[in-house]
Amino acid sequence: KRKKGILKKAHELATLCDVPIGLVIGSPYDSTPEVWPSREAMEKVLSQWKTLSAMDKSKKMMNQESFLRQRINKAIESCKKLRKENKELEMKEVMFDCLKGKTSPSRVDPSNLRDLGGVIEQHLKDLNRRIDILKKNDEPSSSSVPAVATTTTSYVMPMVEMPSSSSSVIFYDNIRERIENNLNKETRKDLDLNQKQW
């Protein structure tokens, strides 16, 4: 049953990847090993293999230990990436809760202030970039519209306020002030410890 599965996989690889594949399958019940797909094809594969350099032969060669080590490293990197994304999502949720008034910056854990400050700064950059894009898109459209004299009463389009940007700035200032206060406290503690030691 296992031999049939291996032969099926070899056939799929040879077809899908368009690579020469040869198998030599030994058995404790048969002294003559089975060769797939045929002896002639296997000899051709071996002759091609022998012409390769040592570096090309071992470039993609892998045993079980190196394969598992590679999978573990990939899993570790994936976990780091997911942990970073989760942290950013968590800080975004805290930021919007503060803007909505559900919580205040003073309740934020001091260990999360730097991450929160980075998220707010990135959010402000995205907002400013979007405002610049909207202004650039609005300028050519307004300049291309010809002035037409009409008798109808003119009206002014209401300006849409963007409280998110100003609130984010104020909120970011509060976070930055808290970070500076914490740094000052840590500096004072270090100075007090040094004075006590002297």
Automatic annotation (TrEMBL):
Domain MADS-box per the UniProt entry, residue ranges: 1-27
SMART domains (alphabetical): MADS
Coiled coil: 65-92
Principal location: nucleus
Compartments, as annotated in UniProt: Nucleus
PROSITE patterns given in the database record: MADS_BOX_2
Gene Ontology terms describing biological process: positive regulation of transcription by RNA polymerase II
Pfam families per UniProt: RRG7, SRF-TF
Transmembrane segments: none
Protein biosynthesis is among the record's keywords: no
Keywords: Coiled coil, DNA-binding, Nucleus, Transcription, Transcription regulation
Record InterPro entries: MADS-box/MEF2_TF (IPR050142), RRG7 (IPR018828), SRF-like_MADS-box (IPR033897), TF_MADSbox (IPR002100), TF_MADSbox_sf (IPR036879)
Protein name: MADS-box transcription factor PHERES 2
Classification of source organism: Eukaryota, Viridiplantae, Streptophyta, Embryophyta, Tracheophyta
